[in-house]
Design a protein that fits this description.
Blueprint (H helix, E strand, L loop, with lengths): L5 E6 L5 H12 L2 E4 H14 L10 H6 L6 E6 L4 E6 L2 E2 L7 H10 L3 H14 L5 E5 L2 H5 L5 E6 L2 H15 L5 H17 L12 E4 L5 H19 L1
Parallel strand pairs: 1-6, 1-7, 2-6, 7-8
Antiparallel strand pairs: 3-4, 4-5
Helix pairs in contact: 1-9, 2-4, 2-5, 4-8, 7-8
The structure holds cytidine-5'-diphosphate (2 copies).
Length: 232
């Protein structure tokens, strides 16, 4: 069938959301959108423009400049997914540092920031055929998504995964700092007033603590196939 669906993948930090979302998008010929990259892009802009550092958190200043922030995605043939751009500068690598990770959840509590990004996310999903991962995709961005997945894994499992990822990138980080970041972000993301991280009522929860990337992909692909069948 040519029917296209919307797939919403939410969950805690470093549960493997973006990995499986990319796999699904490539398999189905859908667009993949990393909504977290958009919150990271805004945070990166704030850091570059002096609104945020270790001593200052000038969220009002950042909000007054939101119109100067243009976020876009361009497909990279070699990598096989779309990289994120801030005002036409490729920031795909720059936004993945532990520094950005340490500020992003606080930035993501601001309703003005969320409103801007959610509007763009809804627009990108207008024609369906999209896999989007984040924290509020099944609850706020695409409440009508045909398939919603909620990913979990223990904090230690997730911190270990993220720690190795950062080491492989060449970032010199401490495991305990990575674990603290994961735990702190879980707390801020689930406790914020605007669009907190919560499993949508109709989302399917998957704990992948003991699943390999391939096992997790196959499990979710099965759910996609079932959803597409029920749809025809
Ligand atoms: O990949 P990782 O788990 O490190 O996080 P991410 O998906 O890049 O998201 C970074 C942060 O952006 C999250 O911890 C949230 O604070 C925020 N975020 C959000 O509030 N809503 C989304 N839809 C996606 C991300
Ligand atoms: O997007 P999110 O932050 O949820 O996670 P990710 O960036 O897709 O995955 C974080 C890291 O965990 C990556 O290095 C994945 O390869 C790894 N991972 C894994 O080893 N096994 C899984 N079942 C899921 C993720």
């Amino acid at each position: 069938s040519n029917k296209k669906i919307t797939i919403a993948i939410d969950g805690y930090s470093s549960t493997g959301k973006s990995t499986v979302a990319k796999q699904l998008a490539n398999y189905l010929g859908y667009i993949y959108v990393d909504s977290g990259a958009m919150y990271r892009a805004v945070t990166y802009f704030a850091m570059q423009n002096g609104f945020i550092d270790e001593l200052h958190f000038n969220i009002e200043g950042l909000i007054s400049k939101l119109n100067n922030i243009d976020i876009s995605f361009k497909f990279n043939e070699t990598l096989g997914f779309a990289e994120v751009y801030l005002n036409n500068e490729n920031i795909e690598k720059a936004i993945r540092t532990l520094e950005v990770s340490n500020f992003v959840s606080k930035v993501a509590t601001a309703s003005e920031v969320r409103e801007k990004l959610v509007q763009q996310q809804k627009y990108m999903g207008l024609n369906k055929g999209v896999v989007m991962d984040g924290r509020d995709i099944g609850t706020v961005v695409f409440p009508d998504a045909e398939l919603k997945i909620f990913m979990t894994a223990s904090a230690e499992t997730r911190a270990k995964r993220r720690y190795h990822e950062l080491l492989n990138r060449g970032d010199n980080v401490d495991y305990n700092d990575v674990l603290k970041n994961v735990v702190d972000r879980d707390y801020i993301d689930t406790n914020r007033a605007d669009s907190p991280l919560v499993k949508a009522e109709d989302a399917i929860e998957i704990d992948n603590s003991n699943l390999s990337l391939e096992e997790q992909f196959q499990k979710i692909l099965q759910l996609v196939t079932m959803t597409l069948e029920g749809f025809e």
